[in-house]
Design goal:
With 204 residues, the chain is mainly alpha-helical. The chain contains nine helices and no strands. The termini are far apart.
Length: 204
Amino acid sequence: MNQELSNLSEKALIDWELVQRACNGDEEAFRVLHDKYRSKIYYLVLKIVNNPTDAEDVTIEAFGKAFKNINQYVPRYAFSSWLFKIATNNSIDYCRRKRLLQKDYEDMNGEATAKENLVTATAPDPEQQMIRDQNMQRLEQLVTTLRPQYQRLVRLRYFDELSYEEISVKLDLPMGTVKAQLFRARNMLQDLLRASTDGEFHEF
């Protein structure tokens, strides 16, 4: 046993074996690792983001990021420590983004109030409407390149604007499966966007 592995506990060594199997494409190893740490990660995230729905999304994102980069894990420390660090960083990033979005909203809301005598609240901004229309056309083109199951999920979520619960019922799928597959579909779309001409996409 090399020096790195000699520092691991018996529990961490079991995880290391699962990680090695996962790196070789063993789906069952991924499932075991997910089921083993899912609740712990969720409650860790919940303490930081302080919202159950957001915690579900951040938890899925954390596992997605960890499993996507699982070959980067090295056994200098336990896999659980590596996973918890990813989840913590994701949670902090989420809170930072949320604060920035809230600030932007408040700033825009303040500007709209100051200009309410010049522009009615219901009047659409032609430039923004044009951007939204272009984005939608572009998104529709990219969605057609996804596998059929991902196409359907994306259309239900982003075009029909169904909730996770509604999609789960409509497709007769577990909630976790719906969220995990939507996360993968969104990653695929983002990769396609980055590979396109300018890689820009607004409001997605």
